[in-house]
């Protein structure tokens, strides 16, 4: 089934039909030629808000045909409500008759009619949207002057209820998207008192005065800002605290911690992660689990359930970004920004089981987003973050590159959302796993030309490299002997000899050297005097009579040196074979230890899994040497 990909350039926005099996279409299916500052989709993809300098144009999601136009000049941010029926806009501050105008507006966009307005100062892009709605969108919450005000949508009256907390920071509150009515808020530390995050029942908030007792609360020090992330079920909350300075002075980028609070107040904890900053934390779309990548590089990635219990450890790598696919089946762990762009793809194969399908290097990535069917990952290099090599690429769930399209100036690339349940959950196809796949760990290595993760390749000397040698050298334990015979050689080069032949040649050299040395040395007579002195002092007839004896000794030495040379050659080859056999037996013992470790339930690194996979090759090589494994 085709899906739509929106591409925005300075001249136009266009939609492209995408089939994940074939890649992106070369030509757009529909386009809107207009310079726009941003495009925002509704959750179901039925509509998109196109932001221009003078107005907001709401277009149909499939054809980009204008549905309605909202006259809101100088608007700098828009957002759809959860149902997609309401549209929130923020305009630059303005004054009406000397008084601040109401620049934060909630619209019934089909009628271009505002249903709620309030004044908002100090707009910060990272805290958008700054107005939160309940699940039924009947109440709106807005923060001003250490107070979260609760308004009825559609009413022009004042706040119905208030949560007053001294020290309430900007952007420091969040409303549960579903479940029981809950509101979370963050209060920064002050005068030696720690900061804290609390959860309240917003239906029980009074019109004014002191707030009721919090349902859940967690205190901490050394936090300048907190990011509050509710699970989509509203049953649990993650609070990511960040500080400008690291008290241990180990990180230039400051310090960060991840706190967990259950919505009912029965469980709260500080997650004990790898030492170092928390780079990213993301709830799965079903709210049953979340992933977190933390620690000094290489960072460690872990998956925990909604009760903060460890499900799986995905190993370490140069990663700082997490992306779940909509069906919660695949998880992409990436390293963008100041990292080289390694992306590892994992599949959930069971309640507590993950398998790595592959890895690829997507250099200069800025945007990473899964397709609605959850089978392809979009990675885009966009301006103004990067002005060079703008492009968008599609990678299959196992890391294989499906398509890559360069764009001269790419401002944005994103998928058109689809209603929940449009695409069913599908596991990976059989045989699609890359060679580096494992139940835990992350390679994070650079991918091959088609995007698949490379296997480990042993070093091959330059004189043995070539087509046949390269293919043979991809073995886990180095090139077999046949590679030395079939490798291509440069013109005029002598073919290299096999290790066994080289050993025999060295043995012959040693034997010949010993032979020549023995010929040059004087041979002692039975009495112990040198042969030269004996022949000089003896009469001629005796000397002549002794000559045959000396010649016989030389012949005997030559006869004995030949078998010795052959024995040295055979002994050298046998020594090399024995040495290789001992090394192979040592590797087999290591493989057996790793298999016992895996049987006990311990997660293995990718290199350890590859060692186990090479057991058959080790046994075969031992048998070729005449040694029993």
UniProtKB/TrEMBL annotation:
Residues forming the Translation initiation factor beta propellor-like domain are 218-412
**What InterPro entries has UniProt attached to this entry?**
6-blade_b-propeller_TolB-like, TIF2A, TIF_beta_prop-like
Chain segments annotated as transmembrane: none
Region Disordered: start-end pairs:
421-607
The alphabetical list of record keywords is: Initiation factor, Protein biosynthesis, Repeat, WD repeat
SUPFAM superfamilies per UniProt: DPP6 N-terminal domain-like
**Full protein name:** Translation initiation factor beta propellor-like domain-containing protein
Organism this protein belongs to: Symbiochloris irregularis
């Amino acid at each position: 089934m085709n899906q739509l990909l929106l591409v925005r350039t300075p001249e136009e926005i266009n939609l492209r039909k995408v089939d994940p099996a074939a890649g992106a279409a070369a030509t757009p299916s529909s386009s809107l030629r207009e310079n726009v500052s941003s495009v925002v989709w509704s959750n179901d993809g039925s509509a998109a808000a196109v932001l221009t300098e003078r107005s907001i144009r709401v277009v149909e999601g499939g054809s980009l045909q204008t549905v309605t136009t909202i006259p809101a000049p100088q608007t700098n941010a828009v957002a759809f409500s959860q149902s997609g029926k309401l549209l929130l806009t923020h305009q630059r501050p303005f004054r009406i008759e000397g008084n601040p105008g109401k620049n934060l507006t909630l619209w019934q966009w089909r009628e271009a009619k505002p249903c709620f307005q309030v004044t908002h100062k100090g707009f910060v892009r990272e805290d958008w949207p700054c107005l939160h709605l309940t699940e039924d969108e009947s109440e709106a919450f807005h923060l001003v002057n250490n107070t979260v005000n609760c308004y009825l949508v559609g009413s022009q009256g004042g706040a119905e209820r208030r949560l007053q907390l001294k020290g309430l920071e900007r952007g420091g509150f969040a409303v549960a998207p579903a479940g029981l009515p809950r509101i979370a808020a963050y209060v920064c530390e002050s005068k030696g008192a720690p900061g804290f995050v609390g959860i309240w029942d917003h239906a029980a908030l009074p019109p004014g005065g002191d707030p009721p007792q919090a349902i859940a609360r967690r205190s901490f020090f050394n936090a300048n800002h907190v990011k509050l992330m509710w699970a989509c079920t509203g049953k649990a909350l993650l609070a990511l605290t960040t500080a400008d300075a690291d008290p241990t002075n180990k990180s230039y980028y400051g310090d960060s911690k991840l706190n967990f609070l259950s919505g009912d107040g029965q469980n709260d904890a500080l997650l004990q992660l790898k030492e170092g900053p928390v780079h990213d934390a993301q709830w799965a779309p079903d709210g049953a689990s979340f992933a977190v990548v933390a620690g000094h590089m290489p960072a460690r990635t872990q998956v925990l359930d909604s009760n903060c219990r460890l499900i799986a450890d995905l190993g370490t790598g140069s990663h700082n970004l997490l992306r779940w696919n909509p069906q919660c089946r695949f998880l992409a762990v990436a390293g963008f920004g100041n990292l080289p762009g390694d992306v590892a793809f994992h599949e959930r194969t069971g309640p507590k089981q993950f398998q790595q399908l592959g890895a690829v290097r997507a250099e200069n990535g800025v945007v990473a987003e899964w397709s609605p069917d959850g089978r392809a990952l979009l990675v885009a290099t966009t301006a103004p973050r990067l002005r060079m090599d703008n492009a968008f690429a599609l990678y299959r769930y196992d890391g294989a590159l499906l398509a890559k399209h360069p764009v001269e100036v790419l401002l944005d690339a994103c998928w058109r959302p689809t209603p929940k349940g449009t695409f069913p959950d599908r596991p990976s196809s059989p045989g699609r796993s890359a060679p580096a796949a494992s139940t835990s760990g992350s390679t994070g290595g650079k991918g091959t030309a088609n995007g698949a993760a490379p296997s480990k390749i042993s070093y091959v000397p330059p004189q043995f490299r070539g087509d046949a040698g390269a293919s043979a050298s991809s073995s886990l334990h180095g090139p077999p002997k046949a590679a030395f015979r079939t490798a291509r050689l440069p013109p005029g080069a002598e073919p290299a000899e096999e290790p066994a032949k080289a050993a025999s040649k060295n043995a012959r050299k040693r034997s010949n050297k010993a032979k020549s040395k023995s010929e040059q040395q004087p041979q002692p007579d039975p009495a112990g005097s040198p042969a030269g002195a004996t022949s000089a002092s003896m009469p001629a007839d005796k000397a002549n009579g002794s000559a045959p004896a000396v010649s016989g000794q030389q012949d005997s030495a030559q006869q004995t040196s030949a078998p010795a040379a052959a024995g040295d050659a055979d002994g050298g080859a046998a020594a090399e074979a024995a040495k290789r056999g001992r090394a192979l037996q040592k590797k087999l013992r290591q493989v057996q230890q790793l298999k016992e470790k895996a049987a006990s339930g311990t997660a293995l690194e990718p290199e350890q899994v590859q060692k186990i996979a090479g057991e058959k090759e080790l046994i075969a090589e031992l048998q070729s040497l005449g040694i029993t494994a």
